[in-house]
Specification:
This protein has 17 helices and 6 strands. About 35% of the residues are buried. Helices cover about 55% and strands about 10% of the residues. Helix 7 crosses helix 8, helix 12 runs antiparallel to helix 13 and helix 12 packs across helix 16. The chain is α/β, with parallel strands linked by helices. It folds into 2 domains: about 250 residues, no CATH class; about 120 residues, no CATH class. A 6-stranded mixed beta sheet has the order 5-4-3-2-1-6, sandwiched between helices.
């Protein structure tokens, strides 16, 4: 039977556009999670002035309990390569943030604020101008200053320097990782006894409310819930305050559980493929830390042996070990697929298998037939995306 799905679409931009829109929603939820954790975030405004506006309290520069505002322009791309200043300029967040800067400056409200280009992925640490821009030091870097001025078509003057001092560029979790990272943080807030399905349902509800705010669709009683006096129709419905998510917070607050004070690192910190896959398998913090430590020990052993000249030149020797580790890891993984925390179960099972019979895997030996070092090498193999630690959604 003929099917129009077989016809190549003349314009197939709809799906990528929707994915980028959804990505922005997930990034906004990160700030809401910080609010739920009892942090400094007071409210989040979506699609007003900028993609996301986060208001924080407690900044020492703010007098009389005022708020510090972070105007965020979110940009995505399919490439996994690190961002250079050229890449950031090409995506256009600086033009939008320059307009925002002028609008805020001209408002006469005396706001204290910063301007953030949130980029999907990570910055190129070797690109000095983009590193300077990311830290608010763009005005002190002649190359960065000149290139931004050319891009914005503005003179090299104090106005540009003021803008660059307020500018930040921040790497964000990628699209294939952001939901897993956010859900893991929400699971930490909810506590270990909360079922995976409940955590997923809470996260889905946060996404729904954030989408509605992004679309400017106010819920019932939104006017009373907004933390501003006489909100304008433009802002009405676009701001998420603690009152709006009070019921979600109530689900996370129990006598035996204290909300986390700082989830910023878990949400925004750099994350390797190993840690990302462990989180997808609902790994505990202890297992994640053990995996990183073991992987570092194995890497150190390998580098030391190479420096001593005792590491074999024949690449097939190491390939044989990795293949054996891969086979046992996948076998252990299959046996714990239905576990409510598969990553923890797989980690313990794999470590036990390697400790019981290290010579069966490290035949030459490369890692002194030491089960601890072999476990670290297995973590490195996982970091190379050759096996994962289960998926908590499969278990539920």
């Amino acid at each position: 039977m003929a099917d129009p799905i077989e016809i190549e679409a003349p314009d197939d931009t709809g799906s990528p556009t929707f994915r980028r829109y959804e990505y922005q929603v997930h990034i906004a939820v990160q700030a809401i999670l910080e609010m739920l954790a009892g942090g400094t975030v007071q409210h989040v405004t979506c699609e007003h002035i900028e993609d996301i506006v986060v208001a924080r309290s407690g900044d020492p520069r703010c007098m009389d309990g005022g708020l510090y505002w972070d105007f965020q322009q979110i940009k995505t791309r399919d490439s996994v390569e690190p961002w250079s200043l050229k890449d950031v300029i090409a995506k256009g967040p600086l033009r939008s943030l320059w307009r925002t800067h002028n609008a805020v400056q001209g408002s006469g409200l005396g706001l204290l604020y910063q301007l953030t280009a949130g980029i999907e992925g990570h910055l190129d640490p070797a690109d000095t101008p983009v590193v300077a821009l990311s830290r608010g030091d763009g005005a002190a870097n002649p190359n960065c200053r000149k290139r931004v001025a050319t891009h914005l078509n503005v003179p090299l003057d104090d106005a540009l320097d003021g803008f660059l001092r307020l500018m930040r560029v921040r790497g964000l979790a990628r699209r294939d990782d952001v939901e897993a990272r956010n859900t893991r943080v929400l699971a930490d807030l909810a506590g270990p006894e909360t079922a995976v399905g409940t955590v997923d349902a809470l996260y889905t509800e946060l996404l729904r409310r954030t989408r509605e705010a992004t679309q400017g669709r106010p819920p019932a009683r939104w006017t009373e819930l907004l933390a501003v006096d006489s909100p304008t129709p433009t802002v009405l419905g676009k701001r998420i305050t603690m009152a709006v998510i009070a019921d979600v917070r109530q689900r996370l607050t129990r006598p035996d559980h204290v909300l986390l004070e700082d989830v910023s690192g878990a949400l925004h910190g750099p994350e390797t493929a190993l840690v990302r896959k462990l989180r997808q398998g609902a790994a505990s913090k202890e297992v994640i830390e053990d995996a990183k430590m073991l992987r570092a020990q194995a890497d150190h052993h390998r580098l030391k042996e190479q420096a001593l000249g005792t590491w074999p030149d024949n690449l097939a020797v190491e390939a044989d070990l990795d293949q054996r580790l891969l086979l046992v890891a996948r076998r252990v993984g299959r046996s714990h697929r239905e576990h409510p925390q598969p990553a923890d179960a797989i980690f313990d099972g794999l470590q036990e298998a390697l400790q019981d019979n290290p010579a069966a895997y490290d035949r030459h030996p490369l890692y002194a037939q030491d089960g601890v070092l072999l476990m670290g090498r297995a973590c490195a193999v996982s970091d190379e995306c050759r096996f994962h630690w289960g998926d908590v959604r499969d278990a539920s």
